[in-house]
Hints:
alpha+beta; 4-stranded mixed beta sheet; Neutral endopeptidase, domain 2; 2 domains; globular; binds zinc ion; Collagenase (Catalytic Domain); disordered N terminus; 14 strands
Amino acid sequence: MKKLIGAALICAMTASLISGCTPSDVGTVEPSETAKWMSGRPQDDFYYYANRDKLDNAEFEYGSVYAADAFDDSLIVERLENIVKDVAAGSGYEKGSEEYIIQTAYNTFISYDFDSEPVPEDLQNVIDEVMNAKTADELIMTDAKLYRDFGISGFFTLSASEDVYISGRRILTFYPFVSMCDVSFDSLADGNSALSGLVSDTRVYMQTLGYDVDTSSEYGKKLANLVLSVYGASGSKTAQDSYDVTDTIILSGDELNSIFTNVDIQEYFKAIGFDPNFCDRFGCYNKDQLICMNSLMVEDKLDALKALEIHKIYSSYMRFIAPSYDSLAGYVYDSYKPIEELAVNEIISNLKNETDPLYVERYYSKETDDALRSMCDDIREGYRALISDATWLTEPTRKGLIEKLDNIVYVTGTDLKRHDTSKYAGIGGNFYEFYMGYTRVGIADNIASLSQPVDRYGVEMKMQTVNACYSATQNNITITVAIAGDSFFDVNGDYYTNLGNLGATIAHEMGHAFDSNCIVFDQNGVYNPEWIADEDMDALLERNEKAVRYFEDNFTVFGIYHVDGELTLGENFADLSGMECIVTLAHSNEDLEKIFKSYAASYCRMSVDVVIIGQLSSDVHSPEVIRVNAILSTTGCFYDVYDVQEGDGMYIPPENRISRWH
Ligand SMILES: [Zn+2]
């Protein structure tokens, strides 16, 4: 379970109360909530107070829905572009190294003829194999080949992933379908119109294989019916976020075999190359979908299954297939940018594993890592004090939480290792051959990983993305290189300014270890709801309820739209937990001021109104302005530092304030 922070950035969200208001409004209206925001006093609207210059001068670039962001992440893209260009121009790289791969990708991409290269032979062969299958058993073996050699998930969304219930082990998991062939199940809840695109695309694809219009249309309709069947079997869960990691059902090998009566599922795993010793226990999110897929694996549905595979192959490899068919011209993006620029974009988009170690080497130092880890340790001490003082918890639970706290490990840029060059030394040829060779190493690694233990220090998140996350099953916090620098963390800068910024994010992530989703994982990352005493769980849930009311009753955007307290509960509490932690590390009001200002600045962002309104219903994070003001309005020392009084915009009566730990 990854808790991704939204820290003003990529996975992002929203908001500012400022949209639509200008300071000149003040004075022309009766004293109101609006006037309080615009007063510019920290006691009325701290978010605006701390970000006033940026927000007042914000300009939306044409086409952009955000402005005045705390951090401009085009800086990261620019750095990556420079890395790729430098490597492409260099020489003398070890075969199979990251630089070798980037340079090979660059050169082969530039010389590949995307306008007239014929369909690559192995791709054409597998397309023919799909269409020539006589039985479902034959077709599922081709599906195994598509998985193993082309990285295509056809009939299942299958992956070697962590076993939620046996810490450190991996398990083959059937992830749920929330879409099929680009048709999202959510869209089907509103009607079948999304299927018409699927039918027409499939018709076009089948025509390239020599079928007439009517037959091709039939394939499309049969595929649409197949998608509807799986959607119909899915129950109410149609979106990714309706599934939680603890929804994983474990199936034994025998149970899985008894679901798959129409095909030999164990032969399928063997054909892909999964270690048979690890094919006796499976993770599954939606058993009814598997039962449905089995019911479709019959001769009668063969055309629909073939159309599914063809759709997947064409979608994944369109740029290599389209040059051979005029009818596919509309499916590839015609760019007029110079080919060199396109090659750089290709590498930045698809070879992140190669650019990532180079990014770390250029933009991360031991000095930064030492300072970062030292701040993480301080935050851990802050939590130790909070938990130790939480006398409302029973003694065994407090002891357990401290153990869990002590067992948290940090994963940073220093944990990212370069890869084994021998695996990549043989790849080359033209761009397609390079691309397939490279892709196949990645797939083989995933297949082989099934029998390998999970490394708690393994880097799961790209170090070039601005993010941090907590993993409940690993009990670790990943802090990327991109967030451990620039405006988030200055190794030579002020400690409390750093603490209010990246420190607050890390404290937020550490807070997730104890939120109501993750607390059911014990100190070793094992799913174990029993390890917290019932009375402590009840106490935590009672606080949850109060927090839902606090956010819903007191905070709105545009004065009318309330945040969804349930939806945002986990993130709101992580924010609050983080703030309660970092303020314990301050020694003076001056330290606290730095923390508060830096915290508010880290969430600076102006969004267009429609984005804010849309995200209120879908984002698990509250809008930025609420992440700042709601948290500080319930932070006791904030009242002391700024002498907030009844009547001020930030004032909440003491009896309505909430706390995570106090
Ligand atoms: Zn979070």
